[in-house]
Specification:
14 helices, TIM Barrel, globular
């Protein structure tokens, strides 16, 4: 397969008339200043596609169900209670249908890959399925249907809270001890959907995993991505500090070998010292600006993190809205509102949009253990094409395109997307859209009939 683009981003530079040759999912040759040839797939602007580094796919079906205020003050914790009630009704077939819809929407939005932070393992009430990996296999099937690049992140969830309370209610579908969790990970490895798929581990959080369990699972999995929810809520920080005598980011950096394989999700509430230390560790800060705004989590300490060359990526988390441009602009706008300043998340001088986009491309690929994040020979062909004739982009210079995409463009500028060379979005539509939507609507009809 060969793709010809009128304009393309190679590293930090914009080039014209780029031909990209792809074999076995990887970029094998790049030719600049080259005319299109017969058989080329011709696009307007070619970019490295981002990884969506944090997703709970099933929560997509809840979008719009939790925005009504009840008596008292709504919070993350009241939202979580509603989420538990919702997931307690989901069948394996419904989980698969929701995941396929989510992955399709991600690709149409410009994401070539996803880190699925997968914590629903068992039947309602906590009884394991006959196959421990039943629900992971449903995620794999959805990835097969859509062709998205998958890093599967089974979640270790052993406690109901930081005081090591027993699991209860909706949490019962999540629970595994360390031994059963490690069996689950091993069961998943030979079943991964594509050659470019990865598997990692996800100790859920310091409130849901004890220090001893965390040490054991890290000792047994010395390779691959490690993702963890770290400091999403002020109450979470207070609870961890009370139990472990240190704030969560501080404790993790002092008690685990946090390095480039780690991704700390919702590193929202950090001191400046913690922010610098996390940046210097080489770990990725996994940011989910739309969900963090939706849940009232707080604002990331972005300026200090960027000043210290920290790696970051973005994810759609609850999937209440799947929009790559909106994730990037929400991230930057949160900084501007807090600091009462403009153009915050860029080191020195230059395009904020390009800093956001390329930073998230590199950091997302790192977080997923994926050889991607830029258009380069040897890398996976995770690429996205956008329509430069769109009214929000047509008047912009090359070096302004990512500012336009990040701050002005609506959804719908994506024309094509490749996940490891799989051409899954064409003319703005996923090639399996109709079948996926039909299955999803049927699954939701069945689900709502039970509620």
């Amino acid at each position: 397969m060969t793709v010809h683009s009128k304009t393309a981003l190679l590293g930090p530079k914009w080039v014209r008339d780029l031909r990209v040759e792809i074999e076995h999912g990887r970029i094998t040759k790049l030719e600049q200043s080259s005319k299109p040839q017969q058989g080329d797939i011709c696009v307007d602007v070619l970019l490295p596609a981002l990884a969506n580094l944090h997703s709970h796919a099933f929560q997509r079906a809840m979008a719009g169900m939790t925005e009504t205020r009840a008596a008292g003050r709504e919070s993350f914790w009241t939202w979580r209670t509603l989420m538990y009630r919702f997931l307690d009704r989901l069948s394996p077939e419904q989980i698969e249908a929701i995941a396929a819809l989510v992955f399709m929407e991600m690709q149409e939005a410009g994401y070539a890959s996803v880190g699925e932070f997968h914590y629903v393992h068992h039947q309602p009430g906590g009884t394991p399925y006959t196959q421990l990996s039943e629900l992971s296999q449903r995620i794999f099937s959805a990835a097969n249907q859509t062709g998205i690049g998958l890093t599967h992140l089974p979640v270790l969830y052993t406690n109901g809270g930081v005081a090591q309370e027993p699991l209860a209610g909706g949490q019962l579908r999540f629970g595994n001890d360390v031994d059963s969790f490690l069996r689950l990970v091993e069961d998943c490895k030979p079943l991964l959907p594509n050659a470019d798929s990865q598997i990692g581990i996800a100790p859920h959080s310091l409130r849901a995993t004890s220090p001893d369990d965390l040490r054991r699972v890290l000792d047994q999995t010395p390779e691959g991505p490690v993702h963890i929810h770290i400091s999403e809520q002020v109450q979470e920080v207070s609870d961890v500090e009370a139990a472990l005598d240190q704030r969560p980011v501080e404790w993790l950096l002092n008690n685990a070998e946090v390095n480039e394989r780690w991704c700390l999700i919702h590193a929202t509430h950090m001191t400046d010292d913690e922010t610098r230390a996390l940046a210097q560790s080489g770990a990725v800060a996994g940011l989910c600006p739309i969900t963090e705004a939706n849940l009232g989590d707080g604002i990331f300490n972005g300026a200090v993190f960027i000043e210290n060359s920290g790696a970051f990526g973005v994810g759609s988390d609850s999937n209440v809205r799947i929009s790559l441009p909106e994730e990037l602009r929400t991230l930057e706008y949160s900084q501007r509102l807090r600091d009462k300043a403009r153009t915050v998340l860029v080191q020195g001088e230059g395009s904020v949009g390009q800093s956001l986009y390329t930073g998230a491309a590199r950091g997302g690929a790192q977080a997923l253990g994926r050889e991607a994040g830029e258009i380069a020979v040897g890398q996976l062909a995770d690429m996205v094409a956008i329509d430069r004739s769109h009214p929000t982009l047509c008047s912009l210079r090359d070096d302004q395109l990512l500012d336009g995409l990040s701050f002005a463009a609506p959804d719908g500028t994506v024309t094509d997307l490749w996940s490891a060379g799989r051409h899954q979005v064409r003319d703005g539509r996923h090639i399996a859209r109709d079948a996926i939507l039909t299955t999803y609507r049927a699954a939701m009809t069945d689900l709502l009939a039970d509620i």
